[in-house]
Q: What sequence folds into this?
C-alpha cells in the first residue's frame, strides 16, 4: 500500500462529494420552489397540529438541505483539492451563493418577507447554475473526446484551468469570510444586554418561553 | 516494515487525515447552527402550538449541542503527540489550541446559560469563532495548500506559509503549542471538576 492508493481514495471521496452536490443543489432548489405547493397543502389540514408539523418538517428539510449544500461545497475552498481534481470551476462561487441565502434567512423575516424570498430564489437559481453548468458541460465531458467537449472542459474544469480556478477559490473564500463576519456581528449586536428596542430583539429573549 | 504493518499505518493516516479534512465542515456546521439562533427563535414565535414549538426548539438545541460535542471529541485527536507531531501526517498547527478554546466554550455553556443570558451567549460566540479560525485557517492555507508554494512565491514570496502552518514541518512551534494545549486541557478539566463538586448537592434518590 503506498501513498498513491490513499491519494486515489481521497480523490474518489472528493469526486463523490462533487457528484452528490448535484443532487443536493437540485433538492435545495426543488424544496425552495415547492413553497406554494406546501402552503396550499397546509391550508387543507383540518387539524392544527398536523399543519404545524407539516410546515415545520418542510422548513427544516428545506433549510438543512441548503446548509448541506454549503457544507459539502467546503472542498471548493481548499486550493490543492480544486487545483488537483476535476471539479466545476465555479463551485466556490455557488457555495458563496448558498451561504448568502443562509445569511438572508438569518437577517430577514425569511418566509414572511416577499422581497427577501425573491432574492433568495434568485441566489439559489444562480448558485445552482454556477454549479450544474460547469459540472455537466465540463466535469462530465472530459472523456467524450470531441474538440468542443475538450474546449468546454479546458474552461470549466478546475484542474484544466487552474489559474482561474484558484483565483475563484480565493474570491469565494473572501466572500464567505465577509458574510460570515456579518452573521457573527449581527448575532453579537442583537444579543447585547440592553437592546435599543426590545421588540426587535430576538436573540436576547429567553429561549425558555417555548 | 512488512506489508501488513504498512497497510495498517497507511489506513490510520488516511483515517486521521480524513477526520482533519472533515473537521472544517463540522466547524462550519457548528457555527451555522450556533448563529442560526435568531432565525430559529423567529420561526419559533410563528408556531401556533406549544407542542410544535417545543419539538422545534428541542430539536435545534439537541442537534446544535450534539454537534458541538462531536466536534470537540474529534478535535481531541490532535492532542495525541504521535498524531500531532508526525512529519508524515501534517495537521493544522493550531488544531490543539482550537480544541482547547472549544473546551472553554463548552465550559462557558456548562457554567452559564447561553440561551438565556446575552453575556454568556456572546462569550460562547467569540470562543467558537476563535476556535474555528484556529482550525480552519491553517487547514486551508497550510494542509490544503502544500502544492501552492511556487504560486505563492511568485506573488509576494509567501511560499513559506503552508509549511509554517503544518504541525509536522514546524516542530519548533508545534511542540510548545502541544504542551500548552495539554496543560490548558488539564487545567480546564480541573476547573470543571471543582465547579461540579461545589455545585452538586447530594439528594436522596427517593426524590426522583
A:
Amino acid at each position: 500500500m503506498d501513498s498513491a492508493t490513499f491519494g486515489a481514495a481521497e480523490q474518489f471521496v472528493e469526486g463523490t462529494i462533487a457528484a452528490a452536490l448535484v443532487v443536493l443543489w437540485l433538492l435545495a432548489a426543488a424544496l425552495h420552489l415547492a413553497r406554494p405547493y406546501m402552503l396550499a397543502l397546509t391550508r387543507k389540514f383540518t387539524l392544527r397540529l398536523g399543519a404545524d408539523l407539516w410546515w415545520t418538517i418542510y422548513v427544516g428539510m428545506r433549510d438543512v438541505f441548503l446548509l448541506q449544500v454549503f457544507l459539502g461545497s467546503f472542498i471548493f475552498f481548499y486550493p490543492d483539492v480544486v487545483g488537483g481534481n476535476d471539479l466545476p470551476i465555479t463551485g466556490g462561487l455557488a457555495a458563496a451563493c448558498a451561504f448568502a441565502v443562509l445569511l438572508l434567512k438569518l437577517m430577514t423575516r425569511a418566509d414572511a418577507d416577499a422581497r427577501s424570498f425573491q432574492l433568495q430564489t434568485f441566489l439559489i437559481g444562480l448558485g445552482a447554475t454556477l454549479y450544474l453548468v460547469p459540472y455537466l458541460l465540463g466535469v462530465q465531458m472530459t472523456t467524450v473526446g470531441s474538440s468542443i467537449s475538450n474546449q468546454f472542459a479546458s474552461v470549466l474544469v478546475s484542474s484544466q484551468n487552474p489559474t482561474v480556478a484558484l483565483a475563484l477559490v480565493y474570491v469565494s473564500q473572501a466572500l464567505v469570510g465577509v458574510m460570515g463576519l456579518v452573521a457573527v456581528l449581527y448575532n453579537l449586536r442583537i444579543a447585547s444586554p440592553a437592546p435599543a428596542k426590545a421588540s426587535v430583539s430576538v436573540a436576547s429573549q429567553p429561549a425558555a418561553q417555548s | 516494515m512488512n506489508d501488513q504493518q504498512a497497510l495498517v499505518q497507511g489506513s490510520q493516516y488516511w483515517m486521521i487525515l480524513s477526520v482533519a479534512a472533515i473537521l472544517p465542515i463540522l466547524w462550519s456546521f457548528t457555527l451555522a447552527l450556533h448563529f442560526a439562533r435568531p432565525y430559529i427563535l423567529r420561526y419559533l414565535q410563528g408556531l401556533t402550538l406549544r407542542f410544535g414549538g417545543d419539538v422545534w426548539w428541542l430539536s435545534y438545541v439537541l442537534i446544535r449541542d450534539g454537534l458541538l460535542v462531536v466536534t470537540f471529541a474529534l478535535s481531541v485527536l490532535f492532542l495525541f503527540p504521535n498524531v500531532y507531531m508526525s512529519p508524515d501526517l501534517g495537521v493544522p498547527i493550531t488544531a490543539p489550541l482550537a480544541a482547547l478554546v472549544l473546551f472553554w466554550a463548552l465550559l462557558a455553556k456548562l457554567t452559564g446559560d447561553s440561551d438565556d443570558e446575552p453575556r454568556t451567549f456572546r462569550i460562547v460566540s467569540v470562543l467558537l469563532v476563535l476556535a474555528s479560525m484556529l482550525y480552519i485557517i491553517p487547514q486551508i492555507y497550510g494542509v490544503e495548500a502544500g502544492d501552492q508554494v511556487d504560486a505563492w512565491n511568485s506573488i509576494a514570496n509567501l511560499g513559506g506559509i503552508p509549511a509554517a502552518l503544518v504541525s509536522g514541518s514546524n516542530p519548533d512551534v508545534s511542540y510548545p503549542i502541544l504542551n500548552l494545549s495539554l496543560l490548558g486541557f488539564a487545567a480546564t478539566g480541573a476547573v470543571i471538576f471543582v465547579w461540579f463538586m461545589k455545585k452538586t448537592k447530594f439528594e436522596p434518590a427517593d426524590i426522583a
